[in-house]
Amino acid sequence: MNNYSESSDHTCKNSKGKDVLLVSDSSTGEIMCSFCGEVIAENVAELGPEYAAQSGEDYMSKSRTGRKSTLAFNDMGLSTVIQQSDKDATGKNLSGEMKRTFYRLRMWDKNSKALPGHRNMQKAFTLLEGLKAKLSLTDAAVEQAAYIYRKTLAKKIGRGRSIPVILSACVYASCRFTNTPRTIQDVANATNLRRTSIHRIYRMLVRDLDLTLETYNPVSFITRITTEVGASEKTKRDAIKFLIKAEELMITSGKNPVAMAATVVYLASIMNNEKVSQTQVSKAAAISSVTIRNLCKKLKDAKIASFADPKIAKTVKSDRDTYNITTKLRVKNTD
Question: Which strands, in side-by-side order, build the sheet including 315-317?
């Protein structure tokens, strides 16, 4: 019960001029006087928070609205469910005629959910639930992926194509739309599909659905790369500083954001004298070491970092030549 000290138009004879204390009973929806017990209002609307039911028992006891509406279900979470037990609301067994009637209703309900379009979405959204757990996607990204997939079905783009490939392309497009740092290779690894197949369908979706997607922010990948290579927090902060300087000089425009993040992490690790090689960074970012070396040269020319630092001016000797790891220039041995 909830007590309310607010007075109303009700005049209680037993209050003797005192303020009337009203009592609200949430189970019956009634508001009554605490002095005389007179019911002032009834069937009051419940203003408390909604309760999302997790099981059938919770739905019958606590939920007022049932399952929330979502695009990630083939029926959008609004379908009715006919219980399998042949009992009425009071717990009594149904008659033989009513049992046959409900058997036909369950059969029609099952057949209505087995239409071709519903089967397609049911299979796709079941796979989407698995991708949500594997890629740690947010609810917003899942909703956007389901929305894009429904648009492909409406325009009949996916006809004759594999459902997992189309859904993977929709998930990657959703990650780009919601700025969730997941690469197309991450989606391919989660679905065990070829990256080229997903990328081809993704380009088709962008063209046919007229999607406007922005590029990733390279800062989103710095934490991921530094964690995999075991770099320190100082290296992470220095990498972000290098990246901000590169963005101010418009060096990051047109570059792969993951490659830029890997390059600044590699430079920051050298500045902090940490044993992180280009191979480790390239494997963590799934980028070739050649790309990292080329971007290192561009950042060196722009003087993003202090390459005059003696920590960076180390050399690595090979069988015949010597390479400076900062400039990557070949120096002939005189031996």
Answer: 315-317, 321-324, 330-332
